[in-house]
């Protein structure tokens, strides 16, 4: 039963939509038309936060699925929830000041490493003979 993991996939999509909407709102607020990616410093921080989050979500989703399928769905889901929270805090912190992203960035990196470890442990346990 992968229902919990499917819910996370939906949450990830909602996070990506939220981040993209923040960029759209900032473009309107600071009169920065696409394809421009520079302008007001606040816009640049919002834009970079959105891009950075988008870059890491494929890694996160892949590790979440492998850890959830091969290790334990509940443990992976808990890590996933914490990861989404830290990325949201990262986005919020980065939009205020570049230094505001660092704490959540380090926390989300640790969670990715944890998910990687769970995924590897699950794969080894599944494919190696007992």
TrEMBL record:
Catalysed transformations (reactions): leukotriene C4 = leukotriene A4 + glutathione; (13S,14S)-epoxy-(4Z,7Z,9E,11E,16Z,19Z)-docosahexaenoate + glutathione = (13R)-S-glutathionyl-(14S)-hydroxy-(4Z,7Z,9E,11E,16Z,19Z)-docosahexaenoate
- What is the membrane topology here? Multi-pass membrane protein
Q: Which GO terms describe its molecular function?
A: enzyme activator activity; glutathione peroxidase activity; glutathione transferase activity; leukotriene-C4 synthase activity
Show the stretches that span the lipid bilayer.
7-25, 56-84, 105-128
Q: Can you say what this protein is called? A: Leukotriene C4 synthase
Q: Where in the cell is it found?
A: Endoplasmic reticulum membrane; Nucleus outer membrane
> Per UniProt, what is one Pfam family of this protein?
MAPEG
Write out the entry's keywords from A to Z: Endoplasmic reticulum, Leukotriene biosynthesis, Lyase, Membrane, Nucleus, Phosphoprotein, Transferase, Transmembrane, Transmembrane helix
GO annotation terms (biological process):
leukotriene biosynthetic process
Record's subunit section: Homotrimer. Interacts with ALOX5AP and ALOX5.
Q: What is its main location?
A: endoplasmic reticulum
Q: What is its EC number?
A: 4.4.1.20
Membership in a protein family: Belongs to the MAPEG family.
């Amino acid at each position: 039963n992968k229902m919990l993991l499917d819910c996370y996939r939906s949450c990830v999509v909602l996070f990506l939509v939220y981040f993209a909407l923040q960029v759209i709102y900032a473009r309107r607020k600071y009169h920065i038309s696409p394809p421009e990616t520079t302008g007001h410093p606040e816009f640049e921080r919002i834009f970079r936060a959105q891009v950075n989050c988008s870059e890491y979500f494929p890694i996160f989703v892949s590790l979440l699925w492998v850890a959830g399928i091969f290790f334990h769905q509940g443990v992976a889901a808990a890590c996933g929830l914490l990861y989404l929270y830290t990325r949201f805090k990262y986005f919020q912190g980065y939009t205020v000041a570049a230094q505001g992203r660092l704490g959540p960035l380090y926390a989300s990196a640790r969670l990715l490493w944890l998910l990687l470890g769970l995924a590897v442990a699950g794969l080894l346990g599944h494919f190696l003979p007992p």
